[in-house]
Amino acid sequence: MAPKHNDLSLAHLEAFLEMMSAERGAAGNTLVSYRNDLEDMQAFLRGMGSSLTGASSEQLRQYLGDVAARGFAASSQARRLSAMRQFYKFLFAEGQRDNDPTGILDSPKKPRPLPKSLSEEDVTLLIETARQEANQAGLDERQNLQRHRLITLLELLYATGMRVSELVSLPVSIAAQDDHRFLIIRGKGNKERLVPLSSASHRALSDYVRLLNRQEETGKQPASPFLFPSRSSSGHLPRQVFARELKDLAGRCGLNTDLLSPHVLRHAFASHLLHHGADLRVVQELLGHADISTTQIYTHILEERLHRLVSDHHPLANAAKMGT
Fold first, then answer.
1. Which of 116, 193, 289, 305 does the annotation list as catalytic?
2. pLDDT tier at 320 (50, 70, 90 boundaries)?
3. Following DSSP, what letter does each residue of 254-322 receive, concatenated?
4. What is the CA radius of gyration of the chain?
């Protein structure tokens, strides 16, 4: 015969699930998940000589540690903690406990997912394809301008890593600036930052602006304060249009269109810089991140580079290679 406290635990578990169904309208699969999670916890607590109703905060913390040790994902751990909190709030409200043991438990930290990125070869393919399409013969003036607009967007984004909102709203005045090696970008919080401009992106920009000016001079394109004008409410090219054109280009290149977005190109800019030796603080400045913690999603690249550096250049590593 099971100890009395386990019988009470089972009775309280059933009452909790009934409340979740009747008062909270919990779905069937939610109730099944709660039951499975709490019964799993009950089995663990029984092994410690405790029960669902009598568990302490430390015992519940040990249970969460056991769940983590069994390899459950952070999302699954968080779901179990949620079930625990709901259950003990119920017991407290019903007067079955005089405290809530989950009040001091921390939620498991979910690892920040790494951003999608592109290889250098993929970026080169995108740019080269866009450049070839921009230089095709037989295009009318409107098509010619649109093709050169796309190559300019690509070149500028990959050269500077600016946010897509910053890119599409660039003022046309940047084309007239004296120093062609840099761009001044106005980013979040109206803060300005200086980003380098590659020779390829400057050439693309010059070609595009020449075509844009010709359209304005002939009256086919109204003058605009924006580098990428549009009839949209904002007056500049909507980011969604650029995103769509980028996906279309990726499809023509044979790349996975689900992986392509302007934001992915921004990540490629940062990843490739770090891979080739750039400092994390420099990349933070170029991306316009106010806090270095935002840029630290790229530390895996630094770790790989450091491992490769030690493996290739440390004298003991070389000695080990010679001995194999």
1. 289
2. very low
3. T--GGG--HHHHHHHHHHHHHHTT--HHHHHHHHT-SSHHHHGGGHHHHHHHHHHHHHHH-HHHHHHHH
4. 29
pLDDT at 3: 38
Helix residue ranges per DSSP H, the chain = 4-22, 28-47, 57-69, 74-93, 120-134, 141-160, 164-168, 199-217, 239-253, 262-275, 280-287, 292-295, 299-313, 315-323
Q: Which of 172, 171, 167, 169 is nearest to 156 (CA)?
A: 167
CB 198 within 8 A of CB 298: no
Give DSSP secondary structure letters for 78-105: HHHHHHHHHHHHHHHHTTS-SS-TTTTP
Query: CA dihedral defined by 33, 39, 44, 45, rounded to 10 degrees?
Result: 120
Residue 300 annotated to the active site: no
| Active-site residue (options: 12, 80, 149, 266) | 266
AA identity, residue 303: E
Structure tokens at 176: 């007239």
**Active-site annotation holds for 210:** no
Tokens 């999302």, residue?
75
What's this model's pTM, rounded to 2 decimal places? Answer: 0.60
